[in-house]
Each structure stands twice: as structure tokens, then as C-alpha cells.
Amino acid sequence: MLNDWSSPGWVPVGLALGLLSTILGLIFAWWFARGPRLLVQASGTTIIATPDSDRISVLYDGRSVERVTQSAVWIWRRGRGVVKGTDVVLSDPIMLTIPDGSVILNLAIARQSRPTNCVTTDFREEAKDIRAVQIGFDYLDVGQGVALEVYHTASDPASIWVTGTVMGIPKGATTVSAGSQMRLPVGLGVSAVVTIPTSQIPRHLRNPKEEPNLTFSATLQEIILKPFLRSMRRWR
Q: What are the distances in angstroms from CA 173 to CA 61, 76, 94, 167?
């Protein structure tokens, strides 16, 4: 006997299948529509600054400077497709820039995803009073990029931006933050502020000497699960 598909019992099933197909359609549309993106993230610290005294000065390689700031800059690819170096518009190349009045003291490529990426910069140690450096590459596949170490005189280690026009990436380079803060309850009337990473830097580009940000699951384990288990043991 054939099932009566018009019976009331099949109505919820039909609605669920219709909703599921709509959700899957939206997901596939988003996946195939998203193009490549070029993401940038910067962080660091001010190593030393000139105090309010005429008797004390700060020298970098024999040169008097106001301060010395160290920044780590990550540039990497997200999304579908491959970005080639020939996709960069010659009249608007990829440039790493610091604020006006600041100077880039030194810049080095700390690591790149693959040697075949052939990431290059036009920084020269003998150059003076420069605040912008051009960056080039042969290609960047998904998840590939470069980590740069920059010494400069700007007051904010994160005040570095990357500009340029790349064919296929209408928005150009997008600066992303290290994470957003969220307050989570850890007990009766007690809460803790944790940082949730908003955009994960590829692991192979991260500096192993730096402490990585706690992931959401690790944060929950550290501030909620472990204290809860310890309290349960005490009640045994």
C-alpha cells in the first residue's frame, strides 16, 4: 500500500526537508561565492622610549630615535582560489606603511609558508627616513602567507597597515583584530573576561616563542571545567 504523502503526519517532515534544503543552498551559495581575501594582523610592544630627560637618549644602530617598537605583522590568504604576484596592479603595489612622523628602522621576513611563495620586500638597511615598504610574492595559495618582523619608531605596535590593489580582491588587504573580549560566568556572581580569537593566523606562521591566544574551548576548560571538577572532588 502506497504511503499517503498528503497525510498530516508527513507535513512536519516536508517542512523540515524544505528548511534543510534552503539552509544547504545558502551554505553552498556562500561557499562558492566567497572569493580570495588578503588578511593582515599586527601586534607587538615598545621596547624602549626616550624618557623626559635631556641627559638620556635612545640610540638604534648609532642613530638617535624617540623610541624603538617591535611589531610582528602577518599577511595571509583566505577564501577560494589562488592569488598570483602578477595579479597585483603595478600602479598600486602592496605596501606596508606606518604613521606619519615615524620611521621603519628594520624589516625582515621571519617566515613564509613555502619557499616557492618567494615573498620579497624592497627594504634596505642603508635607507633612511622611510615609512613604507613594498611587498611582493610569486603566489599565495589558501592559508599561505608571510610573517614579518618590523622595528620602527611609532608609538602603537599595531599601527601598521597594508594597502594595494590586487585583481580578484576588491576589498584589498583587510586588517583583522587579534580577538574580541567576552565576559563568561565562572561561579555565583563571579565572571571572567576572556579573549576569543576572531581570525586565526595560520599555525605555521605564528612565532613559537609567543604565547598563543587561548581558543574558546581551551578557555572554557581552564576557567570553568577545571574549577568545577576540583570543587566536585572536595565534596566527595
A: 32, 9, 9, 12
46, 67 contact by CB (below 8 A): yes
Do 113 and 160 touch, CB atoms closer than 8 A?
no
Q: Which residue would you say has higher pLDDT here, 92 or 51?
A: 92
What whole-number distance in Å separates Cα of residue 149 and Cα of residue 97?
13
* Contact yes or no for 42/81 (Cβ under 8 A): no
Q: What is the pLDDT of residues 190-225, one digit of tens each?
A: 555 444 444 678 888 875 444 333 333 333 344 344
Fold observed for domain 37-175: Immunoglobulin-like (2.60.40)
For residue 176 the three cell numbers come to 583583522
- Phi, psi angle pair for 81, to nearest 5°: 90, 180
C-alpha cell at position 60: 638604534
